[in-house]
Amino acid sequence: MPAPSPAPGATTGTSTVRPVLPDYAGGCIANLVPRLVTGTASSTDAPDWMPEVAEHARQIVLLVIDGLGWEQLRARAVLAPTLSAGAGIDRAITSIVPTTTAAALTSITTGRPPSGHGILGYRLADGDRILNMLRWTLGNGPLDDARRSVPVRAFQPIAPFPGSRHAVPVVSKFDFGGTGFTAAHLGDSPLFDYRVPSSLAVEVADRLDAGAPFVYAYYDGIDKVAHAYGFGPHYDAELTSVDRIVADVVATLPPGAVLLVTADHGQIEVGSRVELLGREAMAMITFFSGEGRFRWLHARSGSTGDLVELLEELRAAGVTIALCSNWSWDLARHLDHNEITRYFDIVICSAIVGYRKPHPSIFAALLTELETLHPQLDRSRVAFVGDDGRELRPVAQLAGEVMIVDRDLLDFVLLNVAIELRIGQLRRRRRGNQHPLHDEDDQNEDDEDDQDGLEVLTHTLRDPFTALL
What we know:
Blueprint: E1 11-12, E2 15-16, H1 32-37, E3 59-65, H2 70-75, H3 81-84, H4 101-110, H5 114-117, E4 123-126, E5 129-132, E6 137-138, H6 152-155, E7 170-173, H7 180-186, E8 191-194, H8 199-209, E9 214-219, H9 221-229, H10 233-252, E10 257-262, E11 274-276, H11 279-282, E12 285-291, E13 294-299, H12 304-316, E14 321-325, H13 331-337, E15 346-349, H14 350-353, H15 360-373, E16 382-385, E17 402-406, H16 416-420, H17 423-426, E18 453-455, E19 467-468
Parallel strand pairs: 3-9, 3-10, 7-8, 7-9, 14-15, 14-17, 16-17
Antiparallel strand pairs: 1-2, 4-5, 5-6, 10-19, 11-18, 12-13
Helix pairs in contact: 4-7, 8-10, 9-10
């Protein structure tokens, strides 16, 4: 993928760059599975991010290598000759936001962005408790299994591998079988586990020999090593080992079968580049969820006045703000009573329009009002913000500059952008050492020091790649 192109107003150092955003309409990990399992990858109008050899494949293996970004691989091509020789290795696709394993793997298997499937990060709030998505636990004890209190299918009901006419076999690590997160992103797919890395190719070969048209495989070694050791000799040794695994899979492919390799995200060195929230901001927050690269900040009761100040800053930044609320007919009275009506350009109330979120009609009404206000509105430049990803599924593909704010923003800060508007006033640098590739697999993220920080992204959007071998 080409380097980010310049964009007015986004400045880093002495250069102006455009931030990398998920390409939900094109080369994105969320679009891989729908194209592959439905056979559309073999159409004549296949996008340029999809390797051409996929057009003629009778069987496809999709191998997801957790944490192996395109830029990391290209910088170490000599260590991975098999991967580096793959068709399509000359270009990258994007991950999703937030670039965390739980959200990204679910986007790969369901073909939806996080706002479409509801797994919006590594840790999410369940009332006043935190649900760990990968472990599906509330708390850290052995008795905190949340599969009964937070039923997986109720939380994430979207079936994996949409459009597949056959059950898709999954080859994954033995440890992951039967877990809540496995059920959340793989549903009822038949699982074929391996206990040691060398067995991954054996299991894939067995599935192909059984006639499976599509096989999904997952390997987590790169991500684990990166978070434990950072970039260095351990990482290089693991990449060499991964390339050997890929070569073993390639060697087992029958005629007409291809191996497609991708990643859920990449990695970057963070070092000491960490932003901390000052006391003024921390006084507004009762706890965090999310993870280092994308924090959700949960507001303290009674801090509405402070949060309204953030709305004022959004208005000052030129953001159009609309309120879309499941509320009774007297919403306007409540807004007036709390003296916040002036912050919203548009107010849409379910009792008045006759539909409640997530019904698409309430969002259609909102977009109609926006287009009346902005006749040249590009709908792809609308960002919907709320505390329930399931409510936002009908508009999951929309993201951009106009911000539609759910009523819960008054009690619950949902976007880091609101805090980042104030970061110049609140910035202070973290002192001491922190591991450069901090992530969801790092148990130390729960410590008190980390809970005071708003960290920069440790996963990268531009690093996932598509290589066909």
